[in-house]
């Protein structure tokens, strides 16, 4: 029963065509039910009609006309089938394939962030991206071929059975023999295709890494390039070994399969010839049609068993792709009962917050922190102290395992998470510039007029970027797709990321090491912009370089997921605790 339950994965593969191409799907299946058997019947009856015309002494013109009529009908059916299978299928499959890829991307972006810590999720994500569209099309074609073959078998079976039932039994015997030989090959092929995926993913990763300009310097200046090539060679070696074993497994079935087809044709032909010799020679036309019908019958019976065996591979493929879509999310799905995100400046409070990553000893334990509306707060500490984890909790990329995070006195889990994030501006240390225009990069949160964007550019010191772009906001700030694109320095990229936060108003600004790529003077100037009185948003800054947070209202020093000190810069320096030690060490580095 479990094996039959797995048939739902074939339905899963077909579902996108029903969702996005219902008209095409119905038309395609109807054409398979009608056109296939009609074409097969005409092909089988043509020899009988032509030979009977000759045997009955009909004029040559009539015989040629008979052949012409049958041929014209066969051609017409073939053209109709071609239109359905190629033109309509081509147009529909492009539309449906991109709709499927959109569904995959939509699912990915709507899946809880925690899954991105799971390599298995990425394996399923990659497999779905690469294969779902093509396997969906294959499943539809397989189903269409199945019902088309069944219809043709019924039609040919009626023709053959009306004259000689033995031929059906002979054909069925050979089809079953081919099935038994094909089953192990199909299973080996399906198992092998699954094993290949991880190796091919790594090969694609290496090839993609070599294409990315940002990796080129490191690959040449260190041993990273040679190391990647060694791993690439080792992986391709495993791939070749896998292929070798696969072909050694299936070749023993290939020899008997190569024998059965000509043997079957010879036995059927010999049977019909003997039948003709011993029977009524006036029925030569009938026997010629029997030969054609038997051949078509055998091919369609083989198709059915081939489709059945191939469906095992489809089930495996569908099951693996379905696992990506079966990932259950709690945070990202729309919540009809969610509270709309409030406007204005936010207060933020962490009450006994606890959190830990799976398979990690790190954890936040009983953390308490309060930020008043409009307050400038800095969170500092060594790498791995938990600073960036706090930004992810405030964005509700993760849910706390204990305690509460309150926005304006209300649990963050009560709000519409997507609307809330639009009110929380974030600038990460690891900037991701879109391979799009300068305008697109500056307006990821809010649209803005040219005048507003030029003011932001001036305020954030981005004149150098605008000059590179020739004063054109629509020039790409990437060379991903065009050689005319503008290449940004690390500092310029960080300024662009920060500039996004000045195209609208936010309740909270989260700044995660936003100036790490800047020199000290540029960093100082940028801090003045962030701390300007015109910036009324509550500002929470994650910082490793303590020189950037001296003028913040309050500084929290975090270590191992706990707050160990808090106060203004002067208060913490006067306390001569760990903040004092950390600031002094960093100051010595600047002096040296």
Quick overview:
63% of the residues lie in helices and 10% in strands. The protein is of the alpha/beta class and 592 residues long. A hairpin with a 2-residue loop joins strand 9 and strand 10 (562-567).
Layout of strands and helices, then pairs:
Elements: H1 2-5, H2 8-20, H3 22-55, H4 60-109, H5 119-161, H6 165-211, H7 213-221, H8 224-278, H9 284-325, E1 348-356, E2 363-371, E3 376-380, H10 387-394, E4 402-407, E5 410-411, H11 417-422, E6 424-427, H12 438-442, H13 450-459, H14 463-468, H15 490-499, E7 508-512, H16 520-530, E8 538-543, E9 554-559, E10 562-567, H17 569-575, H18 578-591
Parallel strand pairs: 3-8, 3-9, 6-7, 7-8
Antiparallel strand pairs: 1-2, 1-4, 4-5, 9-10
Strand content: 5-15%
- Biggest sheet: strands side by side, in what order? 6-7-8-3-9-10
- Overall outline: elongated
What value does the Rg take, in angstroms?
35 Å
Verbal overview:
The chain has about 600 residues and is of the alpha/beta class. The protein has helices at about 1-5, 10-20, 20-55, 60-110, 120-160, 165-210, 215-220, 225-280, 285-325, 385-395, 415-420, 440, 450-460, 465-470, 490-500, 520-530, 570-575, 580-590; strands spanning about 350-355, 365-370, 375-380, 400-405, 410, 425, 510, 540-545, 555-560, 560-565. The chain has a six-stranded mixed β-sheet with strand order 6-7-8-3-9-10. Strands 2-1-4-5 form a four-stranded antiparallel β-sheet, with no helix packed on it. Helix 2 crosses helix 9, helix 3 packs parallel to helix 5 and helix 4 packs antiparallel against helix 5 (about 120-160). The radius of gyration is 35 Å and the shape is elongated.
